[in-house]
Write a structure and sequence with these properties.
The complex is a heterodimer of chains A (256) and B (712).
Chain A lengths: L2 E9 L9 E6 L20 E5 L2 E5 L1 E4 H9 L2 H6 L3 E6 L6 H9 L5 E6 L5 H8 L4 E5 L5 H8 L4 H10 L6 E7 L7 H12 L4 E8 L30 H5 L4 E3 L6
Parallel strand pairs in A: 2-6, 6-7, 7-8, 8-9, 9-10, 10-11
Antiparallel strand pairs in A: 1-2, 1-5, 3-4
Helix pairs in contact in A: 1-3, 3-4, 4-6
Chain B lengths: L19 H11 L15 H6 L4 H15 L25 H8 L17 H7 L1 H14 L4 H30 L3 H9 L8 H17 L10 H4 L1 H9 L5 H14 L18 E5 L11 H13 L5 E6 L5 H12 L6 E4 H10 L4 H4 L3 E2 L5 E2 L7 E8 H14 L4 H23 L8 H5 L4 H4 L12 E6 L1 H17 L5 H9 L6 H9 L8 H19 L10 E4 L5 H7 L38 H8 L13 E6 L6 H16 L4 E7 L1 H9 L8 E3 L4 E3 L5 H9 L6
Parallel strand pairs in B: 1-2, 2-3, 6-7, 7-8, 9-10
Antiparallel strand pairs in B: 3-10, 4-5, 11-12
Helix pairs in contact in B: 1-12, 3-7, 6-7, 7-8, 9-12, 12-13, 13-14, 14-27, 17-18, 17-21, 18-24, 21-24
Classes of the chains: A alpha/beta (256), B alpha/beta (712).
């Protein structure tokens, strides 16, 4: 029986996949994206968050049985609402064998994996094949720029993306639009070209930058020092996707 | 469970009439212009009441008469539905000494006058006041010699005549101003049955406004979409009205309810009980939602004011389209609608002695308590049992005495019994003042020659089981750490609680973060059910509440979530509580109604609904909503609206009883505290009612901001 480090289980997450979903946030991530809005997901160890209402420890160990029991309690409701469970984080694949064990114990329910794609191919396949849908982050196509902004090499990520497109699991590419970094014509064009080659791709989601990103850093005793200008509006370029014949959507925006 | 998914629906929520005229009315009200036509003082009745040595019923009738007479008609040029209250308050009908004599040894409920019930508006509208007068006269003849009945009926007639006179003076004023349509309407209503939707609304406006003038308050409007529908249906069929003109009339009626509400008694501005119930079922169990149901929701979207309070009865099969329309109203942030689940409420009412021929027609009182229009002389909020107090006393006394956990549970049950007994004893001496005008609007008073204060078909009381989640959490913490795992000794826990957790941070953190919590963990949820079973047992033990009724336990908290932590003198349950075993420090709030404790970090709405679906609502039948705050980011697209509607459907399918869904934007609330002048019209749901955020006392504002919020 394996255990995993979880930093949150949140219900009614309306932007983490189809239908009403409960999202499990696994703690620990190999990337260090400067725009990350879940900084408490970075370290795999428990941490303390200070807030006006007191301090609390973030990060709790769950056995696979305990976690699947909690999720199974609402399985039928989530199914009835056309929703399911999403595994996100941090990077869920950093605890791949724990996650596979959890999913194996779930009753009939839609499972979505929300991943950066940074994992060994074995770990990636182990979990992805158990899922109904994958949200696959594709941030920056240029290898050097990717390393500069996330701290890791994207070759592994692109390899897993290719592997995904040979599996029978539908997937959505998710690209956060960070001003001047990911929203450049060059980057989005390269993503569109890559996407056009992939079998099994449902669509590309462009996610406009979350200005609340910096909010939690101070509470964790961390520094928020992004390598970009937060105040610059993001460029939402749909044209390159449309001309490549790739379905594209802007997600998480508030239309008023 | 069958699938609930639906396509995002195009049920139109947009209005079809030109809002310019009504926007002006709304603005005038928000700028308090209607207050300018108020007289400085109300009529003075004491001298004539004493000189004529009037009995109490006769004083009550004289009050209505003089108040109506004092209402010099005021009609604004742009009004199609008229009446503007000009008397600034309700004068006393007894001097303080006389009042003290009259009420000595008796218990008064709140301010004294009958409040928080619902008239049978459908009946009085469809008969008209002249027919009610005829019924009174007929009964008087039949009961000749019964002095009390004769007096009551004379009083009732005096009030009827007062209202008819008021209507005719408004008619004259309307003619004087050249408003012939208004004049013609008031020549018919409320004397005669309405012949149109417009007439019905005008009649209702006047009949309803006069109730307040007798000192009665929390005057509910009941199932307005049911009793007004025949008039609207007829007008639409005959093409006298189209949807746009009907909406405009209904909107004007809704707006008018906001004119006098600052005069109405309540805990804070907005707590006035002008409740409207929509939807539900018909007598033969069919879906009662009609065009007026949907219109009322659309109109509420437009008016965006704190009155009337929109309630919606649903069940597990309610059309998702209707729920989506209702969700658009939720998105506005008014805290409307509050949902009641027929599948749970109706069987519970029947199980608790309500006639199946009546139970289908339930509405809610000012906040949430179930009541039958025209048939319930019920005091649905005689007080609250402080669950945290009972539990806290049981834990402290039990741990000191070396009890096992079941011993603590037994103590808890006995302390709950004690609180209920004390309240029941106090209310067995309840004195309800006569209300001859309100009696006209009820079922059976004129027909039997008995004032409303003598009782109606149903005469039950209701008690809130307040701050239940906090109480359950305290029990759960003790059960786990002291008894199951032996991690904390009784001495350690008691010492920490006595010290208000100062110097015991590690233990407090454990209690706050590692103990089971209601809304998250089944161990705590089970203890919540245990607490409510104890409350139901305690209420069952009261065979007669003194008025031939029983006591109904409920799940609400009302204002007690604040008062229980601070204490208020005079009330048996409002003893201030110190630190509690769930890790809460002295002075911190408890939860309002059915909600996880504010100190608990819960996973979200599904777990909360599941937790509260475990309460035995068959016995816990007074009402008290599950309260949920959704972040406004939840409503950012139509898919999200659909998901929210499904959440409401899930609430019903899980067998929960009542739901209050609020939308908040944390940033807006914080900004409103700092810059109230920029958020004058920001409305929030408080507990059973909505109010203007900036007009609330600071502690209410802080509690709203501190609540658990989902979907951030």
């Amino acid at each position: 029986m394996q255990s995993g480090m979880i930093f949150d289980i949140r219900e009614f997450t309306v932007h983490d996949g189809p239908g009403v979903r409960t999202t499990v946030f696994l703690k620990g991530c190999p990337l260090r994206c400067s725009w990350c809005h879940n900084p408490e997901g970075m370290s795999p160890a428990p941490e303390v968050i200070e807030s006006p209402s007191g301090s609390r420890t973030v990060g709790k160990l769950y056995t696979a049985e305990r976690l699947s029991t909690i999720l199974n309690r609402q399985a039928s409701i989530l199914e009835a609402c056309g929703g399911g469970v999403t595994f996100s984080g941090g990077e869920p694949l950093s605890q791949a064998s724990f996650l596979a064990e959890v999913i194996a114990q779930l009753n009939s329910i839609h499972v979505l994996l929300d991943t950066s794609g940074y994992a060994t191919e074995d770990d990636f396949r182990l979990v992805a094949k158990l899922c109904n849908l994958v949200f696959f982050d594709l941030k920056i196509m240029d290898r050097a720029l990717h390393f500069h902004h996330t701290g890791v090499d994207n070759a592994i990520i692109l390899n897993n993306l290719r592997a995904l497109s040979t599996m029978d699991v539908p997937f959505v590419i998710r690209t956060p639009l960070v001003p001047g970094v990911t929203d450049t014509e060059e980057n989005l064009n390269a993503i569109a070209q890559c996407a056009a080659q992939l079998r099994g791709l449902v669509r590309v989601d462009l996610l406009p930058y979350n200005r609340a990103a910096g909010g939690k850093y101070a509470a964790l005793g961390k520094d928020f020092s992004p390598a970009y200008d937060e105040s610059v509006p993001v460029q939402i370029r749909l044209g390159c996707f449309e001309s490549a014949g790739v379905p594209v959507r802007v997600a998480g925006q508030v239309p008023r | 469970m069958s699938s609930l998914c639906a396509e995002p629906n195009v049920l139109s929520s947009t209005l079809s009439f030109n809002p310019a005229r009504l926007n002006a009315q709304k603005a005038r009200i928000r700028q308090l212009e209607h207050k300018e036509v108020r007289f400085p003082t109300p009529p003075d009745l004491l001298a004539e009441c004493d000189r004529e040595d009037l009995s109490w019923p006769r004083r009550a009738a004289r009050l209505i008469r003089r108040m109506c007479e004092a209402e010099a008609p005021f009609i604004h040029a742009d009004e199609h539905i008229v009446f503007t209250r000009r008397t600034p308050s309700v004068p006393p009908i007894y001097s303080p000494t006389q009042w003290e004599e009259r009420t000595r040894g008796r218990t008064l409920h709140e301010l004294g006058p009958i409040s928080n019930i619902c008239a049978d508006w459908g009946q009085v509208l469809s008969q008209g006041l002249l027919e009610r007068r005829r019924v009174a006269a007929e009964t008087r003849q039949r009961l000749a010699g019964d002095v009390e009945a004769e007096e009551f009926l004379d009083c009732a007639v005096e009030t009827i005549d007062a209202v008819l006179d008021l209507a005719s003076r408004y008619t004259l004023e309307a003619r004087r101003l050249g408003k012939l349509d208004v004049a013609e309407i008031l020549e018919r209503v409320p004397a005669l049955p309405p012949q149109s939707f417009h007439e019905a609304l005008q009649s209702l406006r006047l009949l309803h406004a006069v109730v307040w003038m007798g000192g009665n308050y929390h005057v509910g409007l009941g199932r307005l979409d049911q009793y007004l529908w025949p008039y609207l249906e007829q007008d639409l069929k005959s093409k006298r009205l189209d949807i746009a003109s009907a909406e405009e009339l209904l909107a004007e009626f809704f707006i008018s309810l906001n004119k006098d509400s600052d005069l109405y008694p309540g805990v804070q501005q907005g707590d006035n009980g002008q409740t409207v119930m929509l939807g539900g079922c018909t007598i033969d169990g069919h879906d009662a939602a009609n065009e007026l149901t949907r219109m009322a929701i659309r109109v509420a979207l437009y008016t965006n004011m704190i009155d009337p309070k929109i309630n919606l009865r649903i069940n597990g099969d309610t059309d998702l389209a209707l729920l989506m329309l209702a969700t658009e109203l939720t998105r506005k942030g008014l805290g409307f609608p509050q949902y009641s689940n027929d599948d749970v409420v109706i069987p519970a009412l029947i199980a608790n002695g309500y006639d199946p021929k009546d139970a289908w027609n339930y509405t809610v009182a000012a906040c949430w308590e179930f009541i039958l229009p025209g048939k319930g002389m019920e005091v649905v909020n005689i007080g609250a049992v402080s669950m945290p107090l009972a539990v806290d006393q049981a834990i402290r006394n039990g741990l000191e005495a070396g009890d096992c956990f079941n011993g603590i549970l037994r103590r808890t049950a006995s302390y709950i019994r004690g609180q209920v007994r004390e309240l029941a004893e106090s209310y067995s001496h309840l004195l309800l003042p006569p209300a001859p005008y309100y009696s006209v609007l009820m079922d059976g008073c004129l027909e039997s020659g008995r004032d409303l204060s003598c009782g109606l078909k149903y005469n039950n009381f209701g008690i809130h089981g307040a701050a239940s989640s906090s109480a359950a959490d305290a029990l759960a913490a003790v059960e786990k750490f002291v008894f199951q795992e032996g991690q904390v000794s009784a001495e350690e826990l008691l010492a920490a609680m006595r010290a208000n957790f100062v110097g015991h941070k590690e233990l407090q953190d454990k209690l706050l973060h590692d103990a089971p919590k209601t809304g998250n963990d089944p161990e705590a949820d089970a203890l919540l059910s245990t607490l409510f079973d104890a409350l139901a047992d305690a209420c069952d033990a009261v065979q007669d509440n003194g008025r031939g009724g029983r006591i109904r336990p409920g799940t609400g908290s009302a204002m007690y979530y604040v008062w229980l932590t601070r204490g208020k003198t005079g009330n048996p349950c409002e003893v201030p509580i110190g630190a509690t075993a769930d890790g809460r420090q002295q002075g911190e709030f408890f939860s309002a109604n059915l909600a996880p404790s504010p100190q608990a970090q819960v996973r979200g709405p599904l777990s909360v609904l599941q937790a509260f679906s475990g309460v035995n609502y068959r016995r816990i039948c007074n009402g008290g909503p599950i309260t949920m705050e959704l972040s406004d980011s939840v409503f950012s697209d139509s898919e999200a609206l659909n998901k929210c509607a499904m959440l409401v459907s899930t609430f019903a399918k899980l067998g929960c009883q009542q739901l209050q869904l609020n939308t908040v934007s944390l940033s807006t609330l914080l900004d409103a505290m700092d810059h109230p002048d920029q958020h004058r019209n920001l409305i929030v749901r408080v507990w059973g009612w909505s109010g203007y955020f900036c007009e609330l006392a600071r502690e209410y504002q802080e509690h709203i901001i501190a609540r658990n919020r989902y979907g951030d």
